[in-house]
Amino acid sequence: MRAKKILVTGGAGYIGSHTVVELVRAGYEPVILDNFSNSERFIITRIRKITGRNVPLHTGDCAFREDVARVFRKEGHFHGIIHFAALKAVEESVSQPLRYYRNNLGGMLTMLEAAEQYRVPNFVFSSSCTIYGNPDKLPVRENAPVRKAASPYGETKQIAEQMLETFIQSGVPLKAVSLRYFNPIGAHSSGLIGELPLGVPKNLVPFITQTAAGLRKILQVYGDDYSTPDGTCIRDYIHVVDLAVAHIRALMYLERKRTRTFYDVFNIGTGRGHSVLEILRTFEKVTGVKVPHKIAPRRSGDIAKIYAAAGKAKKELRWHAKRSLEDALSSSWAWQSQFLSIEAKRKLGQSKSPS
Ligand code: NAD
Ligand code: UD1
């Protein structure tokens, strides 16, 4: 049987690296294209260590046609593309909108052109629950209206979804899904790969783990006067390994489709909401580590609550989130703890860069 090669753009990143591991487990042959604009090369070594495979890496930019053409010339036919590569810092996108449009929309455009030119039959796109804005009804379903985006980052997700849908409506032989992720957290059980935030983390869980590790003084809980049971915001936190598995199920779903042209969208979340204080308390319970924190003013742009209607993915993709919040938080801590010890040694000059 022909190998099922999958081109994974952004495969060295947080979600991409976990998905590459799950692709190997499921019998696919992932090939990574990454420009390392937000990731580290040692993650590739770690992926190879976990999988026992020499997963091919191409260093390049998925928005550059020449870089993408080079990958196809070297690798030949691809069974699918999973397109993760994008810039994702919401605040940064407000101050550098053109950089976000060029990278995220340019990347999407080039990958869709490649799918057509090289006759790739399957395509999975990384979208986000951010496209719903502040939803009227909860849990939020896939047919909820897409609201004006609160940031250029959010705009790139809305426009990229639209580009994909319109392209497919033109009759091109491509089957595709957009996966709208809720809040990914956690790390691989090996502790070898996980999220690598650059600078001061903006997201809740990396801020918690860095505060617990003593790298940050205090966690600010942004607002306790929302209309939620404890006054803090509610989100749907999904374990990154469950999220990675959703991509395999999405590929299998597309393979089951008998048509040559197809498009749909799926929420990828647990269907359950947790407040900021619940996350904090659960983290302290599972790790036994106290996290200094204080209530701070609301963060601008935050909505009170959002969580997924997860039924469509369960029924059609045959996927649901299996891992618990406790698992996710203890794996984040294990990753933080071991990564930190390597970084600390590196700073003290006792070790070369991690491998
Ligand atoms: P990440 O930054 O860890 O990974 C993205 C990877 O893409 C990085 O390795 C980066 O170097 C690479 N990259 C960026 N632009 C590139 C380009 N032009 N060419 C080649 N490589 C490029 O981010 P992540 O958290 O793994 O997110 C993956 C995808 O999921 C992104 O599209 C992101 O917008 C989306 N998403 C993430 C979240 C989240 O909270 N992490 C939530 C919803 C959606
Ligand atoms: C953010 C992004 C969203 C992205 C998502 C992925 C914004 C406006 N949105 O969503 O586009 O898809 O990450 O994970 O940035 N919190 C604190 N203290 C902190 C950090 C966060 O109290 O130091 C609270 C926030 O107010 C929020 C919750 O924790 O209520 C989760 O925050 P965060 O992890 O940043 O995710 P989102 O804001 O949901």
Describe the model.
The strands form 4 sheets. The protein has a 7-stranded parallel beta sheet, sandwiched between helices. Helix 5 packs parallel to helix 6, helix 7 (204-212) packs across helix 11 (325-347) and helix 9 (276-287) crosses helix 11 (325-347). It has helices at 14-25, 42-51, 65-75, 90-95, 97-117, 152-169, 204-212, 240-256, 276-287, 311-317, 325-347, and strands at residues 5-9, 29-34, 57-59, 80-83, 122-128, 175-181, 183-185, 219-222, 234-235, 237-239, 262-268, 274-275, 293-296. The longest helix has 23 residues, at 325-347. The model has no long low-confidence stretch (mean pLDDT 95). The chain has 355 residues and is an alpha/beta fold. The protein is globular, with a radius of gyration of 20 Å. Helix 6 (152-169) links the parallel strand 5 (122-128) and strand 6 (175-181). It is 41% helix and 16% strand. It has 11 helices and 13 strands. Bound molecules: nicotinamide-adenine-dinucleotide and uridine-diphosphate-N-acetylglucosamine. Uridine-diphosphate-N-acetylglucosamine (UD1) binds at residues 90, 128, 130, 183, 202-204, 207, 219-222, 233, 235, 276, 299, 301-302.
